[in-house]
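Before the break, one more example. Copy the sequence into your notebook; we will annotate it together after we see the structure.
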Amino acid sequence: MTDALFSLAQATQPTQPGQGPAPSGWEVFLRQMLPIFLLVAVLWWWMSRSRRKERQSFENLLNSLKRNDRVQTVGGMLGTVVEVRGQEVVLKVDEANNVKIRFNRSAIKEVIREAPAEGA
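Here is what the structure looks like once it is written out:
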């Protein structure tokens, strides 16, 4: 048994005089986790940046609403903008009966662009 302990003690490398103390558990943890923390921070920044761009383009869409734009509401209703006043938009939803409905501006989901004709 003494021989096994003696050979085990010789197998370990002695610390050299120029080396400092062994790193603590906290330092080892930070070295291993720092790349993960950086990756999470970069991903969070990238996702918030894309959300900000999307929100900005949606606000630009709502601010650029004008008469005769064909739009779709959040509820799926299709209509043509008749009037825009403040936060309210009046849509004509039925041409035959001249039905107009008032919506909050934030209820507009998208402006429908007509597809270009195939011959053009």
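The mean pLDDT is 82. The beta strands are 70-73, 78-85, 88-94, 99-104, 108-111. Try to locate both features in your own notes.
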